[in-house]
Amino acid sequence: MDNTTIIILAVVIIVSVFGAYLLVYRKDIKGLKKEETKAGYDKSLQLQAYERLVILAERISLRNLIGRVSPTGTALAYQAALVDTIRQEYDYNLSQQLYVSSQAWQAVSSLKEQNIFILHQLSGLLPREATGADLAKKVLELLDSDPKTSLHTVVLEALKFDAGKLLKNKN
To answer: Is the pLDDT of residue 37 over 50?
Structure first.
C-alpha cells in the first residue's frame, strides 16, 4: 500500500468515527431535550392539579356550598342535595390525585369527609319537620361560632404550600 491509500483510508476511518460520534451525540442531546421538556410538562400538570384541588376545596367548603345550593324542601332533602354536590365535585376531580402528593390528596379527601360528617350531624340534631333553610342556618351558625370547625383553611394552606414547593423546584 502506498502512502496515498493509507492517508485516504485514515481519513475515511476518522470521518466515520467522527460521524458515528456526532450521530450518538445528537441522539443524546435530543434525549436530554425530551427529558427536560417532559419534566417541565409534568410540573405543569402538577401545578394544574393543585389549581384544580384549590378550586375543589373552595367549591366544597360548607359556606360556599350553602351559597350555591338553594335551601329548599326539608332539612333531610337539603342535606342529601349538599352531600350529592360534594360527592359530584370530588368525583369529578379524582384523577388529580395522580399529580399531587399523597398528603395533599388526603387533605382534600378529609375535607370532603368532614363536611359530609358535619352535614349529617347537624341534620340529625334538627327536628323532622325542619326545612332546608333551618339546616343552612345551623351550618352557618356552627361556622361562625368557631372558624376552626372546618378544615377548609388548613387544606388550602397545605395545597398552597405544596404548589409553592413545586414552583421553587421548577427553576
So the answer is: no
